[in-house]
Each structure stands twice: as C-alpha cells, then as structure tokens.
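Predict structure. Chain length: 143.
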Amino acid sequence: MLQRVKLNQLPRACLLGWARSGILFTYSRQTPLESCFIPLDANDQRRLASWNFIKDYQKNEDDLHALATGAYVAARMVLKDKAQANLIQPDDCVEIFKGMLVNSAIFTGMLARKPHLLPKHYLVMRSALASYILHKGWDRIKV
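Prediction complete.
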C-alpha cells in the first residue's frame, strides 16, 4: 500500500521518486534531508506483528542494528558534503538496507521459521522490516 504524502508540501528538489513500497527517496544535495522525513507506516507494523517479525527483531536486535549501521555508513559515504551527511534520516538508508537484509543470514533465518509465508510476500516483509528497524533503532544505528 502506498503512503500518501502531499507532494506540494515537500521541497521539489527533495523528490526523486517513489518505490513500490511507498518509500520516498529523499537524497538531494540542494535540500536538507530532514525536511523530507516520512514516519513509519502503521500498516508495516501490523504486517510485521502478524507474522512475528517484531519478536524476531527483538531477539536479533544487536545483529540487525549492526547490519543497519553498515547501511547508514554507506549512505554517508555517498554524500560529499559533511553538513548533508549529518542530516541523514532513516528513509535515506532504507533502499541500501533492504539490499543488505535480503542476503543476510539473519533475515533468511527469519523467513525459514515462517513456512506458511509465501515467497511472493518476502519483498513486502523485507521492506517493512527494513523500515521498522531503521525507524525504531535510529538512535543506536547512526554513528
């Protein structure tokens, strides 16, 4: 489900496109990134809770935060300007983190413990989990 945001309320330089999951890409050199922050979607939280991914997150919290810190560091390396790099928000790291999450043993282990979850839903759960982890643990993730 796409998250609705009034585009005329966000700075134009900030808008680069929508992902299928409804995440707004917020990277821009001209506009401070904090002006584009989008809160965590409640539908993602319900989806994760219904499949016990939140319990899995709590069990593997330290390892998932270490993986998310890698995504944060990668996002900082993309930005040349130190002032912009200090304004990185969770939504700026989601796409990088989703790529790291799909190949991690932690996430594949979570999926293996859910045999009734159809493979066509893996991408949705990966997106929801990545967003959830980045938003909930942001204070620990950002270095």
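Summary: The CA atoms of residues 20 and 125 lie 13 Å apart.
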